[in-house]
Design a protein that fits this description.
3-stranded antiparallel beta sheet; 10-stranded mixed beta sheet; Kinesin; alpha+beta
């Protein structure tokens, strides 16, 4: 590696205090946090004992995302342009505003978000977003850090007119869920493998990386990834992120030797004014990791059960390992635990050395959240002591070629090993390793123009897919409204059936009593009376729906009401109909349960 400037620094820590939310207001929570001059004061609700913590940046409840970007985000872009690796980690409990801080976006001059905005009060809200009828100033001020950083980086690139520098920007979007890596930009979703390569370092095998040239392309990719991300409802957040999400930006600046006067004249004569010089002098590469961590939570507070309970355990375990790494770095300056989890393995460079890293802790000021808010403040305050040694990542063309040559040499070695190996298991291992090195070699030699072409094809397919998905979502929303209406009607029907059942039950009870009396009333009759009664039997049966039994030998009659049998049958039919409605209502309720 060519000689580069190393910058010794510490991890920067920012704290953002969000407003008290409606759930906390319902529980009559009060605010126990105040801020002043980058100091956070938190008061214990019962004893009123106050604790204070100082940070590099502190943002109160009235702060918007533009304020945070101006304080934190612009430096990230500036450092990336200089060639440093950069990282922002959004940390905090479930529902504290991490995703809002990192991902919120609406295009400028537009009042419709590209991330399927729904109003704040909706239970289906994916983001705690500003209302559609908000002013344009309010909307733009609430764009999150990820779209802002991407947009300013792209704007800087487009405004640079140097004929000797070429800029290449690629993005990827990954999710870490239950200690497995998933590609949020891929249409298939198998878990991916993490590799540590001696030549190129740590990388994710098969991860989709898309070349981009404008913010519209970036937002379409974010939208796709956001829809794939694992979310679920908890008592603390209607759409709690159940995974860690990492948006990666690879920013490369390639400097070419300038044209000679003869080359310039030749290009003009050949109408090739935009041709780049062929000889590369150096390459400067910055890797930007923008991380929206899963919410830390206490199971008792978030009230998760079943699958969500297992998710919470996995999330807390992952965050616990991150905490262990931070503690080792604070106490000893080094760590041996980075490879102990997927999250810390991917973030190894960002948290142990070669990166300009900022942690943004998102905190609730509510009195009912005192313990976890205090824990968060104490935790991130310690990370201020972590020393990082970021350096400008610049290599010469000779060093770039050396990397390519190493990959090529490893391919030849693996091919030779395959020829002399007979063990089937070893053959399969070598084939897998060879395929991966061939893929890396191909990626390192593919031209930027070819990458742009392939990426544009992918984005075109994505646009078609998003249009199709939007259509499906609209259909599902209409179906949901229809089903909700049907559900309301069924609930009314069941209420009516319940009332009718009650009425019929009372009537049958009365008829049963009457039947008992009549069945016991065996009247002694004279022959004359029997004769007269016999003449009226058929009339009584037809008019009164009575079943009259005449015992001429014993001079007795027995009168039964047929309608009692009819009412019993009618009640059984109503019971059956009601059960069908109840079963249908259960199915509808299951369909509206939050997805796991």
């Amino acid at each position: 590696m060519s000689e580069s400037k190393t910058n010794n620094d510490t991890v920067k820590v920012a704290v953002r205090i969000r407003p008290i939310n409606k759930s906390e207001q319902t529980e009559n929570a009060s605010s126990i946090i105040s801020v002043s001059d980058n100091v956070v004061n938190i008061i214990e609700p019962v004893s009123s004992v106050s604790k204070s913590f100082g940070f590099d940046y502190v943002f109160g409840a009235k702060t918007n995302n533009l304020d945070i970007y101006n304080s934190v985000g612009r430096d990230i872009v500036k450092n990336a342009m200089a060639g440093y690796n950069c990282c922002i980690l959004a940390y905090g409990q479930t529902g504290s505003g991490k995703t809002y801080t990192m991902l919120n976006y609406v295009p400028q001059n537009s009042k419709d978000t590209m991330l399927n905005y729904v109003p704040q009060n909706s239970k289906d809200a994916m983001l705690n977003y500003v209302p559609r009828n908000a002013s344009e100033e309010t909307i733009v001020s609430n764009n999150g850090l990820i779209p802002r950083i991407a947009e300013e980086l792209l704007n800087n690139v487009s405004s640079n007119k140097s004929p000797n520098v070429e800029y290449q920007i690629e993005v990827s979007f990954v999710e870490i869920y239950a200690e497995k890596i998933f590609d949020l930009l891929s249409d298939s979703h198998p878990a991916l493998k993490l590799h540590i390569n001696p030549t190129i370092g740590t990388y994710i095998e098969g991860l989709t990386s898309i070349a981009v040239t404008n913010i519209s392309q970036v937002m379409k990719l974010i939208e796709k990834g956001f829809k794939h991300r694992s979310t679920s409802s908890t008592a603390m957040n209607e759409q709690s992120s159940r995974s860690h999400a990492i948006f990666n930006i690879s920013f490369k600046q390639i400097t070419y030797s300038p044209f000679s006067d003869a080359q310039v004249e030749n290009n003009r004569s050949m109408n090739m004014q935009d041709e780049k010089p062929r000889k590369i002098i150096s390459e400067k590469t910055s890797k930007i990791k923008l991380v929206d961590l899963a919410g830390s939570e206490r199971v008792k507070t978030s009230k998760v059960t079943g699958v969500n309970f297992q998710e919470a355990i996995a999330i807390n375990k992952s965050l616990s390992m991150l905490s262990t790494v931070f503690n080792e770095l604070v106490e000893t300056g080094t760590t041996t635990k980075c490879r102990s989890s997927i999250l810390t393995s991917i973030l190894a460079d960002s948290i142990t050395g070669n990166s300009k890293t900022v942690i943004i802790a998102n905190v609730s000021p509510a009195s009912i959240q005192y313990e976890i808010s205090l824990q968060t403040l104490f935790y991130v305050h310690r990370t201020k002591k972590i020393v990082v040694k970021a350096h400008i990542n610049e290599i010469t063309s000779a060093e770039t070629q050396s990397i390519v040559n190493e990959l090529k040499a490893e391919i030849e070695r693996l091919k030779f090993e395959l020829l002399k190996t007979t063990d089937l298991e070893e053959v399969n291992r070598l084939k897998e390793e060879l395929a991966e090195y061939e893929r890396l070699y191909k990626e390192s030699t593919i031209s930027w123009s070819d990458k742009l072409k392939t990426s544009q094809e992918s984005i075109t397919v994505l646009e078609t897919e998003l249009t199709r998905l939007d259509s499906i979502i609209a259909e599902k929303e209409n179906e949901k409204v229809s089903l909700m209406n049907e559900k309301t009607k069924l609930e009314a029907d069941i209420a009516n059936l319940s009332g009718e059942k009650e009425s019929l039950a009372n009537e049958i009870y009365n008829m049963q009593n009457e039947k008992t009396i009549l069945m016991g009333d065996k009247v002694s009759l004279t022959n004359e009376k029997l004769q007269l009664l016999g003449e009226k039997v058929s009339l009584m049966n037809s008019i009164h729906d009575l079943h009259v039994v005449i015992d001429e030998m014993n001079h007795n009659i027995e009168i039964l009401r047929n309608e009692n049998n009819h009412l019993t049958e009618s009640l059984e039919n109503l019971k059956s109909e009601r059960q069908k409605h109840v079963d249908l209502l259960k199915n509808l309720n299951n369909r509206f349960k939050p997805q796991q």
